[in-house]
Amino acid sequence: MGTRFAATLASAFLASTALAQAQTITIATVNNGDMIRMQALSEHFTDANPGIELDWVVLEENILRQRVTTDIATRGGQYDVMTIGTYEVPIWGGQDWLVSLNDLPADYDVDDIIPAIRAGLTVDGELYAAPFYGESSMVMYRTDLMEAAGLEMPEAPTWDFIAEAARAMTDRDNEIYGICLRGKAGWGENMAFLTATANSFGARWFDENWQPQFDSEAWATTLNFYLDLMEDAGPPGSSGNGFNENLALFQTGKCGMWIDATVAASFVTNPTDSTVADHVGFALAPDNGLGPRGNWLWAWSLAVPAGTQNAEAAKAFIAWATSKEYLELVAENEGWSNVPPGTRMSLYENPNYAEVPFAQITLDSINSADPTNPTVDPVPYVGVQFVAIPEFQGLATAVGQQFAAALAGQVSAEQALQSAQTLAVREMTRAGYID
Question: How much is the pTM?
Answer without folding.
Answer: 0.88
